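Morning!

As promised:
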Amino acid sequence: MMRTHIKSWDNLIFQAVVNGFLLTILIAITIPIWRVFMMSITPLSWKDNGTFGLWIPPWQWSFEAYRELFKHPAFAQATYNSAIITLGGTLISIVLTTALAYVLSNPKLPGRKAMMMFILVPFLFQAGLIPTYMVVQKLGLVNNLFAIMLPGAIGVTNTFVMKGFFEGLPEELEEAARLDGANDLQVLWHVILPLSKPILLTISLFYAVALWNEFFSPILYLNDNKLMPLPVLLRNILLAANINEYIESDAFSNAPIQAFKAASVFITMLPMVAIYPWIQRYFTKGTLLGGVKE
Amino acid sequence: MKEIIVRQAVPRNASRLVEMKQHISPVLKTMVKYRWLYLMAVPPLAYFVIFHYLPLWNAQIAFKNFKPLLGVWQSPWIGFQHFITFFKSFYFTQLISNTVIISMLKLVFGIPLAIVLALALYETSFKRFQVLVQTSAYLPHFLSWVIMLGVLLMMLSPADGLINAVIKSMGGKPIAFLTSPDWFRTVVVFSDIWKETGWATILYLAALMGIDTTLYEAAQVDGANRLQRIWHISLPGIMPVIVILTMLRLGHILNAGFNQIFVLYSLPVYSVGDIIDTWVYRSGILDFQLSLATAVGLFKGVIGLVLILVANRVAKKVAGSTLY
Amino acid sequence: MKERLKMKKVFSKLFLLAVCLTMVLSACAPKPTPTATATPAPVTQPPVVVPTATQPPAPTEIAPADIELWASGRVTEAAPPPDDWIAYTKIKDELKVNLKLVLLPSTQSDQDTKINAAAASNSLPDVFFVSRDTWFKLVGAGLIAKVDDLLPLMPVRTASHYSDPDRNRLVTVDGAMYGLPDPGAMPMTDGLVIRQDWLDKLGLKAPTTTDEFLTVAKAFTNDDPDGNGKKDTYGFCAFVDGSGLTAMGVGPRFDWIYGAFGVAGIFDLSSAANFGLNVRKDAYMQATQFIRTLNEEGVIDPDWPTLKKDEFRARWKQGSCGMMHENFAALSTQSNYKAFDENFPNGFWSVLVPPKGPNGDSADGTVILSARIYAISQRAIDAGKGPAIARLLEWMANDEGYYLLGFGEKGVNYNLDANGNITLDGLPDPAKAWTKAEMQPLTQLANMVYIFTPVELNARYPSYTAASGRQMDPLSYYTSFTKQPYTQATGSAIVNPPSNAADFTRFYSENIAKFVLGQEPLNADTWAAFITGLDGLGAKDLETNAKQTLMSAGFLE
């Protein structure tokens, strides 16, 4: 609901403060982001013009960094791999997380507290990289995309947040459905989930972003270079400049290395940024049955 | 689960089914009633067993002198040796204090700011403006710290940084923010908040959206002004989310942000910026990054556990809402 | 309330259970073998687990083998060789080897983590490239095989790659070689260079002493040598390079200053009698004082402590540096020089003879022989893959493999001229020249075949004409560097880090940085306190152990 009427001085001052604050935030965010964008289009022959890199005349913009990254022979394959990991992993994660959160949100379920402790313990005591690798290796998942999607499938924070949301749904709806003879699965599917769109989409977004940006487990678990996702490719490109001592080769020399770094950031950022407004549509005030109550 | 098993006397002429039902304890009855839920819980719990508890089994190498050829179980036991190495290491106190200070500063400044931003976004009358600010605010989350170093150098370099240019124009001396022990932590906390607040706000805003608007209308009718409505309706409405996120963050209090510190720190600021994780990283080359890192991980877990236990008790009293 | 109580009870029960479990586990854990010590002692010589070597099969017939090779690609940002790479076919047909190639990630720490993870789960590949520190630990764990038996199976390769006794010493443990020490970085590739055009503009001569260096640096900083009216230049640029024991302090980019005071490098390796940490010497303190002066006078780019290598390079390409210590290829090859050339067509770097200190000493840096270590896992040898591995490596070293992996196909990617030099003349399709970006996947394994012959160097670093019209010859920089004085310090590469190496190196480097940046006063007392601190962290033990290692390896007399 949009409040379009400014009712009194009280409101006016309040709106001024609120919007002033938001404007400050906006400026504080935009300046550095703009700088990163400028970095990505800096031409090779660029000399500092005293604007702290915040202003490059548009006719000097050079999209070479983007061009070279897109032209990289492995770029398409890497993007494809990232897409599979992101979509597949998000699906797995959201299904498992929703199931667990729903189960834990039933206050009368025997063993509920034990289950919560059960998942909290490994949240606190994280075994670490190599113990996890040893398990994954024994499962035969090395060099398999599942090695990236599975070990982090359920996030404890996400589970607890979703559980909180489920707990906030009014009980009457659930009880009504049960009276009609629905079992738990049907209640979940027909009653709870349709009302939980905002939280489902939000948590899915969280998983998707994490999977899309994941570079470390692919480095660890994947051997076949054809399976490498985008972040690994970009990381190899960016960090190569730091180890190739005898850099006598030609690739990636048409733009400053900073431009490549910044361009790779924007390339990975764009799909995720594009998704969010689409999710945002579901965020409207007072979606009564999807929120947390007292 | 202290439910008492009740056995009821059943008249002989009752149906067999009723007999059976009344012999089964209430607990089992509930469990049968919820059988679908238990079924649903199996795959997620299996995930935890496979990918969290099995690795924890492997994590016993924290107490062993791990030899890959012998495997986890056969490797010789050395008890708390690795922990003692860690506790007695030269910089131990400094590492702990740096880690805790930086982590707590990020928490104390970051969470309120995210909440305030969420509230401001919720309360503004201009919908387009809200979407604009919200979308911009979470963009920094996608920047890697490697890029952020470049941005920070642009802003903070003593030679030609933006901020120092302003300082110089006002007649002051330039400050080497990134290499000065006095300023490094400020830079770390500030840049982290800058980067992550917008992203954290998403969740708080989603929670706010779920609050029943009729509550606000009712309160308005009762004469409450904006601030009062925020204090009495908005905040309590999202309190469960705040508690969950804060407590889980406390559980990881000894993770102060390895990726950020690793990129930003340098020799002159080790004394205020070196955290547990960067130390483990540097020490890691000596022993496969295994036993020592695992031992430190377990140590972190103990501290986190204690904190969560304490915080849960406090949260119950102060906020009326708990994690578990 | 009841809930809380319940929770507490559950928790205390769980805790009690955990404690009991721990005690039970510790009681029935497998007993340590009698030879193992209860506390891990600082390791200088690793406890070598002697692998049971299987005899290689008699060479009557060649059995096909699958070999998995983890290599560090020559161009880590480029793609791996295509599936239909002609080398794969040749290796399969001629050597009966199915080669599975995995290119390691770009950074050493990522590489080490990947290798460590495979090591921990005892699933190391057959042949893999590995850094020395990690290699050393893997040898101690018995996961890496001795290679002495394989060398006779690859005579050509051994003659061209493994006949440098110093390099062989780098991989020798207890008298046996545990890795193949392929030629590593060329020595003396980094040296001091100076902006000749700035010298000319200000009418100055290249500095020959440290005092003159300071004067010139001040002029470069204050007198607007690039003539653009802005004070945006610095006399000297550097960054904190390297890691590990040999790069302690402020790093190799400043080593020439220590060289000017006669104490380049971490250790004094002149003789067994003189052996010790250079940091104990007065000259070391004076050199540190000189760097401090550079900082105080503002002639060094103040961001230097936080810069990473690529940032540092971006700066000199932007024209803010007057003098620096840089790698010849990173400075002058066509792709690397391009940015600088476009910005400063009249800019030119000439080699700077390392300035002399008060006693007339000078050194452009240290020479630490390094090797690219290719290790063979014990698993591979146990599976009988030794001969197949030797076959593969030998093929890489003879002409067919050398040219194919190093430059591509003759007549397609490169040609040979009358003198046997690599040329690009006469190629039917110039786009397929081996230097082109698209052809880089074909030469990813070049690091396994290069041996730094003059032919190779001329091929890899050809002279060219820059966009500004200047004739550039990268190899001339390299040749000039090799003519400068350098301090021999190869031995320091085999000094094994102490168990508290992380803390020791931090203490050392952090304090030097503080002295240099003016965060700590630098005088005899504070320096003595610094040395005392080092001793408290085990400096004397480090010296004793290092001396022993070096003497038994023959690096010290």
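Confidence is low (pLDDT under 50) at residues 1-8 of chain B.

Hope this helps with the figure draft.
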